[in-house]
Structures are given as structure tokens and as C-alpha cells.
Specification:
It is built from 4 helices and no strands. It has helices at 3-22, 26-61, 66-91, 95-128.
Length: 129
């Protein structure tokens, strides 16, 4: 079964079981959803590691410096983490905390992107001189 098919199967099975158990055993339904979330994140980690290896090989083949793509990867990582954390906050009924997590993520992402902006400005000043 493909990776996407397996993930879809896990999600659908978890949803059906959790909705069935939610009324009579809400704690078990919560633990089931939590366990499925952990399994999904572990599978995602494996896929992300494989993707990063391929991405690094591609960049090495193109002789691109890590200083150029490192900030982009950091920003993407921050965005993914913030999205997961904000969704967890909303699921727990803490929408105000979710908004603060998103604001903090925006500031962190901007800070992580500054080295890339510095590289672009350095390139532009060297190119115009």
C-alpha cells in the first residue's frame, strides 16, 4: 500500500473508532486519536527524512550553498511545527493560545529568514558594483 493510502487508512479507521467510542468511553477515544497521531507523525518523519536526503543530494548536484537553502528549510520546519501546535491548542479549546502560538511562529519564521535576506542583499550589492 502506498504511503498516502496507508495514512488515509489510519486516519479513516481512527475517525470511525473514535466516533464510535466517544460517547461511551471518551478517554479511550482520546487515547486512540493520540496514538494514531503519534503513528502518523512517525511515518511522516520517515518520509521527511527520505525527502530531505533526496533534496540535499539534488542541491549538492547543483553546487548550491547550504546558506541559501538552510533558512528556507528552517522556515518550513517552523511553519509545520506551529501549525501542529496551533491545531492542538484549538482541539483543546484554547483558541487564544493558538493565536499566540501562530504569532510567535511568525516572528520566529521571520527571524529564521533574515540570513537569506542578508544573502540576497549581499548578492545584489556585489552584482550592481
Amino acid at each position: 500500500m502506498s504511503g498516502a493510502g496507508l495514512l488515509a487508512g489510519i486516519v479513516v479507521l481512527t475517525l470511525v473508532l473514535s466516533l464510535t467510542l466517544k460517547k461511551d468511553a471518551p478517554v479511550i477515544a482520546f487515547l486512540l486519536v493520540l496514538a494514531a497521531g503519534v503513528v502518523l507523525l512517525l511515518r511522516l518523519g520517515e518520509a521527511a527524512q527520505s525527502t530531505m536526503q533526496r533534496f540535499s543530494a539534488l542541491l549538492a548536484r547543483g553546487n548550491l550553498d547550504a546558506e541559501l537553502y538552510g533558512p528556507v528549510l528552517r522556515v518550513v520546519g517552523i511553519a509545520v511545527l506551529v501549525r501542529i501546535l496551533a491545531a492542538l491548542c484549538r482541539d483543546a479549546g484554547q483558541s487564544a493560545l493558538a493565536a499566540k502560538v501562530e504569532l510567535a511562529g511568525t516572528v520566529l519564521a521571520f527571524g529564521a529568514a533574515l540570513p537569506l535576506l542578508e544573502q540576497v542583499l549581499t548578492f545584489l550589492t556585489e552584482w550592481t558594483v
